[in-house]
Amino acid sequence: MYPPLNDYEIVKLPERYSDSQSVTFENELIICGGYNNNKCYSYHTIKKEYKYICSYPGDISFDGHFVTKFMTNSQTSGNELNLLSFGGIGRNTTKCTFLMKYKSVWDYPESKTDENFNMWVKCNDNQNIGKFNENLKGSRGLIGGKDNNLLFITHPPHNIKIVDLKTMTTIQDSKIAQKDYSFSFHFFTYLTINNIKVQDQFILICDEGILFIEYNEKTNKFFYESIGECHNLNIPFSSFVSFYDCIFLFGGRNVTDQGKGSCVYKWSMKNHSWKKCKFKIPLDLYSSSAILNDRATQIHIIGAESDYDKNLHCIIDLSVIHKTIELAEIAELYECIGLQDEQMRMSHGTPFPPHMKRRRIQYTTETSPEKCEYKKEELKKLETKLKKFDDKMKIYEMNWDDIWSIDGKFSKMEKKISRQMQDISLNIDTSIQRRQFLKILFAYISQSALEDTSQSLNEISERKKIVKSEIDTVCSQKIKLKAEIDTLLVTYINCIVQHNKLCSTKRDIIYEENKLNEKLKTLNESIQSELVLLNRFDDLSGNLNLLLEQNKNWMKDEWNKLERRFIEWKPLDIAIFIGHNLRFTKSEMNECKENAEKKKIGGSQLLNKEIQEWMDMFNFMKISAITVRNSFHKILITYSTEHIPKNFLCPISNAIMNDPVKALDGRTYDRQSITNNYRMLPNCSSVLNDGKLELFANFTLKEKIQSFLNGAK
């Protein structure tokens, strides 16, 4: 039983692993050996079971090797995985590099027997990573480069090299110039910003501190910078995981008392600072390894220990590592990034993201997004929207009931927009009617001016200015209302796009649900069929077990009958007795029967036979003769009184006497038995005279015994 844990899951490993190496592949965690352990297993994260894959060659022993995934030009299927294994071997030793093409042992069971997959293939000497005099114990590696073809390797004492995976040749081999940096069994990972890897920029953590490394592929040069300390965390015995711009350290060895640790520390790539987490893992983590699953939802720690077991696999949910408020900050960060991407698309004249173009909604000509001109004013408004991210209500910030209910916030906002659009439409109609009225009025005034020549030109000019002012006011209002309509229209379009996207997601979910239900139905039918078959097998097993018991009881009865009539044994009975005790084959039993017939051996001839006589009669080895003679002796002790007169039996050995002699106590014994065992008699002084054993031959009884034996032949 394992101790109860919250938000953890404990699985027993099939082997004990220390300093193991693991990679992830879809729903699998592939464990690729460890310290003095060459076996490789696949752990299925859904089925929660292990399957054996293969082993490294038996003559290889690792101490801190490294395994990584990489792509090759020959890889044609997404169901395959290429693995590269190197390191784990010290200086002045020939290095070994291995490659494996992996196919899931869960989806493709036949891949176990396919010699092209799921086995480590040793590279040629000219392709091996590492020189004879280099120390690759506790080395680490990362894939980088513009074409993802460069393998960056850090290894003791303070070296970094680059291997071109296309040619398996070393293109850079240098020492890290930073002072006092020495590392082995360290942590080497990518620098990330907003959880996105920065090309050819890395973080190295060792006992001496934290180092930033940058590589320039054009100039083939490195840049180093020390960016932190480790405060005696004992890095070589710890395990690490990197995600969301943070590095988490698990366990290790307590520097103060050298005990195994269970603490968790977090180092921020943004703030360059360590922070001790409030929770602890109630297991000993020492020389274990940690890895994040492909979906970034769980952390797997291989090689944990408890008071109950020394080879455990600990699975931790990510929500335990990150507090709820931190997860919310991460979600908001990515939402802001999405808004920046939208701004970038607008600045390039693309109002819809690429993945939405195929599902673009068909609008009428009047409301088509293509008719909306995204000018500089719209771009400035969007920038303002980004700065005031939390000021305005967004549909994706509303609760689901506010979005889909008839009285929710979204419905109210839609009604408000509708009312505003109606007001705007009324204002536009008013301005148009006023403009038509003014035109009629202007025509009337002009006609009146022609008819009434006495009207003052100054009065006409004054009225003309008043009308012009009114027209300018109405036009200004019209422009303002038009701008508001455009803004509301864009918001409305975005809401429709979001609605269509959600509907599409819903359809996909329903499709997946139906597909899963079909699978479940098929599985259920298979389970029922298997259950019927299991019941039939259970009935058959019960019948066979009953038959087996009957056969055993029959054989037991027959054997008891055989033992009881030992004095009447014929060669066939003797062959059965010897063959059963020595577990003979059929041919050996027949040979024993023929031997007994040839020498005319019966049950009475076996009485009082010594080991050497058994060996001579049946050509036995000594150990076989001892086994048969002891077994026959037990039969004599058990059933001798049924066939042999009691006075023919030695009181000590309970066997027929071979050389009967009388002792001073008046009783008759077998000479050999009394000579060897007289001291074991309850009153041994009764057979001694002056401390010496006195024996007298009993010829009369000896003749009777001999006559009895001759008559039984």
Main sheet? 4 strands, antiparallel
From the 3D structure, determine the CATH topology of the domain at 566-711: Herpes Virus-1
Helical content band: 25-40%
Q: State the low-pLDDT regions, or none.
A: 348-376, 388-392
Q: What is the tally of beta strands? A: 29
The named CATH superfamily of the domain at 566-711: Zinc/RING finger domain, C3HC4 (zinc finger)
The helix/strand class is alpha+beta
Spatial strand arrangement across the major sheet: 1-24-23-22
- Give the averaged pLDDT, no decimals: 80
What percentage of amino acids are in beta strands?
15-25%
Radius of gyration: 48 Å
Head-to-tail CA distance between termini: 67 Å
The general outline is elongated
Number of helices: 12
**CATH C-level of the domain at 566-711:** Alpha Beta
CATH architecture of the domain at 566-711: 2-Layer Sandwich
Oligomer: single chain
Descriptors:
single chain, 713 residues, alpha+beta, Herpes Virus-1, four-stranded antiparallel β-sheet, 12 helices, elongated
Description:
- This protein is α+β, with helices and mostly antiparallel strands and 713 residues long.
- Among the domains are: 236-322; 393-531, no CATH class; 566-711, Herpes Virus-1.
- The protein is 38% helix and 23% strand.
- It has twelve helices and 29 strands.
- The strands form eight sheets. The chain has a four-stranded antiparallel beta sheet with strand order 1-24-23-22. Strands 2-3-4-5 form a four-stranded antiparallel beta sheet, with no helix packed on it.
- The longest helix is centred in the C-terminal third of the chain and has 108 residues, at 457-564.
